[in-house]
Amino acid sequence: MKPILSTPAWIVALALAAPQAYAAALLGPELSSFAVLAGSAVTNTGGTQLSGGLGVANNASVTGITGFVGTLSNDGPGTATGAIHQGDAFSLLASSQLATAQASLSLMGPGTVLGADLVGRTLTPGVYTVPAGTSNLTGAVTLDGLGNANAVWVFQLPSTLITSPGAVVNVINTGAGAGVFWNVGSSATLDLNTTFEGNIIASASISMASGVSITCGRALARTGAVTLISDVVNAGTCLGTGEDGSRGLSGGLTVVADTGTGVPGTVLIPSLPVPLPFAPVSVVPEPQSWALMLAGIGLVSVVRRRRSAPTLSAL
Fold first, then answer.
1. pTM above 0.70, yes or no
2. pLDDT at 13 over 50
3. Residue 268 counted as domain residue
């Protein structure tokens, strides 16, 4: 009786050559360290307070960041608790991660299309498109995580994000690992005394009037400037609303990137298997999954071949 054949060499070769994958948070480690990051400049008037880093990617001069203590201009009174980067390798890497994050968010599709003004709505986790309008928030909107500690909301704003004076974003019933992302096609403008939650990722610029508070999140502008006037941006410990204090509402999503094919196709999956109205994605198998799958195929083919072979009694 012949011994059972081992896995064929061609299956082992395919398994070793299979595309490899890695998983990472949507905001890269350098990017997530910033409370405010701009492409061209950061300007401030008044006692703005940032919990987290401060940076500008494409302006290493003294005018790159103004109105903050500890910068090249060192002309306060604004302060930042984290590191300050002006046109250095760290800020450039973070800017690259910002571009990748925005592209990844766009891959999630439009989700549910809402009206231009979010006022009065209670929104459960999911992907939403918000068209341009005179104001996207004239009052309060509530984001209800329904008890999911990794609840995530993605807002696709193809054009602008604009709030009215005194607008409020409330995040409730969530916890460690929650995420709120505002993917803005051009620029964001937060009016007087707006209380905001989540990460603003703007293709161009972000402008904040006096008294704006991003109580948990970040202001991240890819190519343009971030302008502040006696504001607060908190990417650190976020108390009182039930979010994860360490991530600044940047959780909930995992990036799975195929590193074996050379194709820049990044997909997103929820970090917990909670059904959300995301666009369908194809998850890249991990290397060990490829090996097990191919080995299984090889074993099935061997068993079938052995069963179909003639026995001695049949000859």
1. yes
2. no
3. no
